[in-house]
Design a protein that fits this description.
The chain is of the alpha+beta class. It has helices at 56-62, 122-127, 129-132, 136-158, 199-207, 245-262, 278-285, 302-305, 311-318, 337-353, 382-392, 407-424, 470-473, 502-511, 516-529, 544-552, 582-587, 596-600; strands at 18-30, 34-41, 44-51, 70-79, 94-105, 162-163, 181-183, 191-193, 212-220, 232-241, 275-277, 299-300, 323-328, 360-363, 399-404, 435-439, 444-447, 452-455, 482-487, 490-497, 537-543. A hairpin with a 7-residue loop joins β7 and β8 (191-193). α4 (136-158) crosses α16, α7 packs across α12 (407-424) and α10 (337-353) packs across α12. The mean pLDDT is 94.
Length: 601
């Protein structure tokens, strides 16, 4: 080894010890006869001092060093002179007086600063990702990711789970997103699919009798990207036999509390985790993954506003459209009339972007006796205003935002405005973490275009036991045994109790528009396995990228993935995706045809 210690290891107890360090020059300060180097490796930073009067050869060599040069030094640890300790560094009470230095490798000037947290164009970061990953923040993120995954593996091992790897090359089946297809050279014209999840395989492991399985699984979905989604991602996959919904949820809740507290050093705001029905989540928060760090719940005021003199509300209430109010606490404050109108216009623009036709509002003055401001105040009687304020908990300085439309539009606008208000009001502290279970999802959504039911999760999800008869009489009212775990406005886990009876599983296919012939073609292996004694079972999958993103306080999952794709699904560092060689295509019996838009032109 070229090092006896890491650059984050030395402390006062090492004073007087002769050591060797190796790493990158993080900073260099030349003060003439003395050169100071901050030497960095993955474990931290150590200050190195090279004194010309004591070690002229070392000083001469160090004079050529620049940032990001890779160096090797030998020297003696000493306490820093009084008044020069650096409390921001773990090694800040000591320094190494070097008498030998060696250049291991020089470096070009990097395209951005490694030793400063400055805003860097993401395209540049992705092109030089190996340099971006040198930055301490990025290294901290990947170390945190490692610790989270190790903790989870140990946690599950102690509780009787075993990790089983499942195939990456599998059969293409409908899973909700597009598959990535892999052509088979040995079987021309046929394709494997990369797994969107190991769903079928983990259920087959339950048939095989393993009872408690987990896997840190690589999954692939060919879908449009966003801040919390990548084409390839890492999922904690769990399946358990002989369990009910409560058993799976209890295990995951215990695990999430433990990993949050023991690895990330954070304490969940709510213990035990709140449980919200799917319908309540939509009605109050407009989302099935609500951010519970703050309240800002929408309140239904249809019965009050529908009796006002405001024509839109009267008409909508008559048509069965809800009227909801979101309260923006203290947002009116001491704003002038012009400032208040400008704020309202900005909120209306945001609401329109979410599908609203407009946004009515009402603002309370700073004092209780102040007149209510806003264009719709005149349509409400004094008694109706008092009822509104009591229902919504309005206080002086608040703005009340009214949303009314079809329910799906109302939910989308509530979610959009709620997230915006929370950011504006400073409620989204990344150092706070709040989990909540969302349960009692509908079993199906009606697909008007296809005139059939779509499963809300997947076709292997069981109904709640009491809703099983509804599969024959009224599928739209059946609730699934699904449970999702929301955290800070993201879904971080989702699962269900599975169907373990072949007869019930076969009922699902005609409901979702599949013939039994097609079902046997796609899922014959599952249906056949269900004839050999299947235990009741259920499971859950957690997106580890999202979880680590939240624990690290980062805005998107690219910050906690070593080599992510850009928003366009590209790896601009390596130049992927790229064209294949003609010989490769010939071997696979594939011919590339231009996209339809190009073919027409």
């Amino acid at each position: 080894m070229l090092k006896t210690h890491t650059c984050g290891e030395l402390r006062l107890q090492h004073a007087g010890l002769r050591v060797e360090l190796a790493g990158w020059v993080y900073r260099r300060r030349d003060q003439g006869g003395i050169i100071f180097l901050d030497v960095r490796d993955r474990w931290g930073i150590t200050q190195v001092v090279i004194d010309e009067s004591a070690s002229p050869e070392a000083h001469d060599a160090a004079g050529q060093f620049r940032n990001e040069y890779v160096i090797h030094i030998k020297g003696t640890v000493r306490a820093r002179p009084e008044g020069t300790a650096n409390s921001e560094l773990a090694t800040g009470e000591v320094e190494v007086v070097a008498d030998e230095v060696e250049l291991l490798n020089a470096s070009k000037t990097p395209p951005f600063y490694i030793n400063q947290e400055t805003k860097i164009d993401e395209t540049v970061r992705m092109k030089y990702r190996y340099l971006d990953l040198r930055r301490p923040r990025m290294q901290d993120n990947l170390v945190l990711r490692h610790k989270v995954i190790k903790f989870i593996r140990d946690f599950l091992d102690v509780r009787g789970f075993i990790e089983v790897e499942t195939p990456i090359l599998f059969k293409t089946t409908p899973e909700g997103a597009r598959d990535f297809l892999v052509p088979s050279r040995m079987n021309p014209g046929t394709f494997y699919a990369l797994p969107q999840s190991p769903q079928q395989l983990k259920q087959l492991l339950m048939v095989a009798g393993y009872e408690r399985y987990f896997q840190v699984a690589r999954c692939f979905r060919d879908e449009d990207l966003r801040g919390d989604r990548q084409l390839e991602f890492t999922q904690l996959d769990i399946e358990m036999s002989f369990v009910r919904r409560e058993d799976v949820m209890a295990l995951i809740e215990e695990m999430m509390i433990a990993v949050t507290e023991q690895v990330a050093g954070m304490t969940p705001m709510h213990k035990p985790f709140p449980r919200i029905t799917y319908q309540d989540a939509l009605e109050k928060y407009g989302s099935d993954k609500p951010d519970m760090r703050y309240d800002l719940a929408a309140v239904d005021v249809t019965d009050i506003a529908g009796k006002s003199a405001f024509p839109v509300f009267v008409s909508n209430a008559g048509e069965g459209k809800p009227i909801k109010v979101l309260r923006a606490p203290g947002m009116a404050g001491s704003l002038s009339g012009t400032q208040l109108r400008k704020t309202a216009e900005e909120l209306e623009t945001l609401a329109r972007s979410a599908g609203a036709k407009g946004l009515a509002w009402m603002a309370l003055g700073e004092k209780e006796e102040d007149e209510v401001k806003g264009p719709i105040g005149k349509f409400f009687t004094v008694e109706q205003k008092v009822a509104l304020f009591e229902r919504t908990g309005a206080k002086p300085g608040d703005i009340l935002l009214f949303i009314s439309d079809q329910r799906e539009v109302v939910y989308n606008v509530i979610d959009t405005l709620r997230r915006h208000l929370a950011n504006q009001l400073g409620y989204t502290d990344p150092n706070k973490i709040a989990f909540a279970w969302v349960i009692d999802f509908p079993m199906f959504y009606w697909n008007e275009e296809e005139q059939r039911w779509d499963p809300s999760q997947h076709m292997f999800t069981a109904t709640l036991p009491e809703d099983l008869p509804l599969l024959d009489t009224d599928p739209g009212k059946a609730r699934g045994s699904q449970y999702d775990l929301a955290c800070n406005g993201y879904e971080v886990a989702g699962g269900s109790i599975r169907i373990h009876d072949r007869a019930i599983q076969e009922k699902m296919f005609p409901l979702i528009g599949q013939t039994m012939e097609r079902a046997r073609e796609q899922f014959g292996h599952m249906l056949e396995a269900f004839e050999y004694g299947v235990p009741p079972h259920g499971g859950i999958a957690s997106g580890l990228d999202r979880l680590v993103m939240i624990l690290a306080g980062e805005p998107n999952i690219r910050e906690v993935i070593a080599f992510p794709k850009t928003q366009q699904g590209a790896d601009i560092m390596a130049g992927a995706p790229s064209e294949a060689e003609p010989k490769q295509l010939d071997e696979l019996s594939i011919k590339v045809v231009p996209p339809k838009s190009e073919a027409k032109s």
